[in-house]
Amino acid sequence: DYAKTIQDAVLPTIKKVRDLHPESFVLYKPKAIVSGDFYWINVINNQLICAVADCKGNGVPGAFMSLLGYNMLENVIKQKNTPVPSIILNDLNEEVITRLLSNNPERKGKYGMDISLISIDKKNDQLQYAGAHNSIYIVRNLQLIELKADKKAVGSNETQGQNLFTNQIIELRGDDMIYLFTDGFPDQ
Q1: What's the whole-model pTM score?
Q2: Residue 166's closest CA among 120, 131, 118, 139?
Q3: Cα separation, 41 vs 26, whole angstroms
Q4: What is the pLDDT, as a whole number, of residue 47?
Q5: Rg (Cα) of the chain, in Å, rounded?
């Protein structure tokens, strides 16, 4: 319970999420007391940036990784000060490799995360998206639009130094509903 309290203290409050985007919701129901999933939201350069991530590892290791992942994501966004999702994910990939894998390259694939990251420019009604295994859905006029993720995880050290993640741009319409999620919800 104490670990859960610590993990919950890192995540944005529902009040912060709704202050930044009033018509939003968060469904966060960890299977265990602590979770390897996390969500992140803030405004950078007048654009709303949201991320949802699923860290590798179950139970306590996944929860530790979610705390590290959250902090690494926040640091990368502050350092780059860019709302471009692919740049953020490419730099996050480098950060994960540097912090967790550079001293022990045999650890391939055991650390890192699947993540979807969006940037919404409300002034121009434009959404940018990049994803590592985590696609996003947009519901528009009762139609489901899937923006597919790159089939790579953040922390993929086989391709260190390369641009792994693709930036996708879509024009938004007034009634669009955007869904970011991990596999935690369908798995349960």
Answers
A1: 0.91
A2: 131
A3: 11
A4: 95
A5: 16
DSSP annotation string for the chain: -HHHHHHHHHSPPHHHHHHH-TT-------SSSS-SEEEEEEEETTEEEEEEEEESSSHHHHHHHHHHHHHHHHHHHHHH----HHHHHHHHHHHHIIIIITT-GGGTTSS-EEEEEEEEETTTTEEEEEEEB--EEEEETTEEEEEPPBS--BT-GGGTTS-----EEEE--TT-EEEE--THHHH-
- Mean of per-residue pLDDT scores for the chain: 89
Q: CA nearest 107: which of 97, 117, 116, 115? A: 97
Q: Which residue has the tokens 């894998």?
A: 101
pLDDT at 139: 97
**Percentage, residues of the chain above pLDDT 70:** 90
Cα gap 173→113, rounded to integer Å: 30
What contacts 42, CB < 8 A, 6 or more positions away? 12, 20, 48, 49, 77
Identify residue 172 by its one-letter amino acid code: L
Side chain identity, residue 2:
Y
